[in-house]
Structure formats: C-alpha cells, structure tokens
Specification:
The chain is of the alpha+beta class and about 290 residues long. Helix content is about 40%, strand content about 15%. It is globular.
C-alpha cells in the first residue's frame, strides 16, 4: 500500500528543490511577469480538476492518488509553461527516491541559471548572424507546403494532426543497422523518409521542417524541472533523382547544419513569417521526432 502522508512529504520536498514548481505568472503593465514563491502547496488529492490552471495563483502541477482495482494509480498534470516531457521523468525519479528515504544529489544549477546562460549565448550579435544564415538558407525555398489539408487559419483545427507510431523492435534493429552501414544516426534515415514523403505529397524540394529537441546541453540541466524543450529549424533538400543513400546523406547534413546554427523557435517563427506572403499561416507546417520508450 502507498503511504499517502509519506507521498505528500516526498512531493513537498521535490517542490522545494525546483523553483519552477513554485512559480506563478502575474499580469503586469508589460504583460505576464514570472514570480518564484518561497513556498507552494501541491496537495496529493484523490482526484483533480482537469480545467484550466490559474497561472497567477498556482500551483501549476496537480497530483492525485486514485484507487484502481486492487491497487492505486498516481496521476500527474503539469502546465507546459513549467515542465516538459523530460521533466516528468525527473519528477518521478526524485519522487520515488524521496518516498524511499533516499536524498537526491544537490542541484548544480537552477532554471534561472539556464535562462541567463541562454540569454548570454544568444546575444543580439550572435542572433543577427544566425538570422542571416537562415534567411539565406530559406531564400528560394518552398515556405508553404501544399499538403491538401486546408486553405487557411480557419481550417487549422480540422487540418492539424499528430501521428504517433510505435516502431516494432525488428524494424528498430534494422534501422540501427542501416544507420551503422550509412554512418549516420537512425533518426537521419527516418527524417529523410519523412522529407521524401512530404516532397511526394507537395512537390516541394527545399522546405522548412521542425525537429523538437530537449535543449539540455548545459551540464546540470538534465536534473532540472522546467520547460527547456524547443523546436529546431531544419531545411532539407529532396532531389527525387538521387538514390536513397544520397537522400539520407543530405538529411544528415541538414540536421548537422541545424545543430550548428540553432535558432530558438520564437526567432524561427518570426523569420519565416517575415518571408512569407501570408504571415497568418503556421510558421512550421510539419515536425518530425523520434523518442525512445522503455
């Protein structure tokens, strides 16, 4: 059986460790302002409201321990402004350790350190250079893919879809073997296939795509709870006259280029909209990602 009081104590300790779980967003004259509170109660209930969060009062995390058959189930609901998918794993690992009486190691940095480091790394001169690089890369590209999914913003709700597929183990094994043979990551092969599929559907040869990234390259960030995730701009070039091997190589080059000239999604969105004749369209019409699950 789960000791509810002990679980609550463990939750309280995780909240104390991570400032993002004690953060609220208060409306100010210049828009919402982030405020980190010294304390934040996150009660473990028997259920929770799945309605909108109150970002001005918090908490931006809901937890419920529910009876289910002969056992119990722990449900978590995070507001995306304070946690990404990686953060859920961090939360559960620390919660399990603290419930078992094991103290997690001290955090080397906090989310505020990450924000400050990002601001310094992406200073205006650096950002100007990256915007210039991607502007040149996007000139002449097909910035709008004709996928036959709708004619404008009014169709977004009906046209937008997320497709998830669990890949069979034997397929993943062949994918890894193919990556070793071609000297690339398995994702480069999947990305090449995805880009080729979009080319076949739209006729476009060079176009912007998004690749979600964890954005946790700084030492210590892997143990933090926060919204680190971002979408990286990738501009593949698909030549239907080339072999599959050449398409995979081109996809790998495009992914490497994106990694060396990364641009935050807010900058990507603004740049693409500035180059389009219709800035009301979604900045990126398609994204491709590949995750490992236990």
């Amino acid at each position: 059986p789960v000791d509810r009081d002990r679980l609550q104590e463990a939750v309280d300790l995780v909240v104390v460790r991570h400032a993002t779980l004690r953060t609220v967003f208060v409306e100010g004259p210049d828009g919402p302002r982030q405020c980190v509170l010294g304390r934040m109660a996150v009660p473990v209930g028997t259920g929770f409201d799945d309605g909108p969060f109150d970002i001005e009062r918090g908490p931006l995390l809901r937890i419920a321990l529910r009876e289910e058959g002969d056992g119990r189930r722990l449900d978590l609901l995070f507001h995306h402004i304070v946690a990404d998918l990686w953060s859920v794993g961090v939360f559960m690992a620390e919660l399990s350790d603290l419930y078992a009486g094991i103290a997690p190691p001290p955090l080397r940095i906090d989310f505020g350190d990450h924000v400050a480091a990002e601001a310094e790394r992406l200073s205006e001169p650096e950002m100007a250079a990256r915007r210039g690089f991607w502007t040149d890369r996007l000139l002449g590209a097909d910035l709008t893919l004709d996928l036959g999914a709708g004619d404008g913003p009014s169709d977004l709700a009906a046209a937008s879809r997320v497709a998830r597929r669990r890949l069979p183990e034997d397929f993943v094994a062949r994918l890894r073997a193919g990556g070793e043979s071609l000297g690339c990551a398995p994702f480069a092969i999947l990305f090449a296939v995805f880009a080729a599929m979009l080319h076949g559907r739209s006729g476009a040869r060079r176009f912007p795509l998004g690749v979600p990234v964890a954005n946790r390259g700084r030492a210590g960030s892997e143990r933090l709870i926060g919204d680190f995730a971002d979408i990286r701009l990738v501009v593949p070039e698909v030549d239907p006259e080339k072999s599959g091997r050449a398409l995979v190589a081109a996809a790998g080059e495009a992914l490497d280029m994106a990694a060396h000239h990364e641009l935050p999604f807010a900058e990507t969105a603004g740049l693409i909209r500035s180059l389009r004749t219709d800035p009301s369209l979604l900045p990126l019409q398609a994204c491709c990602t590949y995750t490992r699950q236990a």
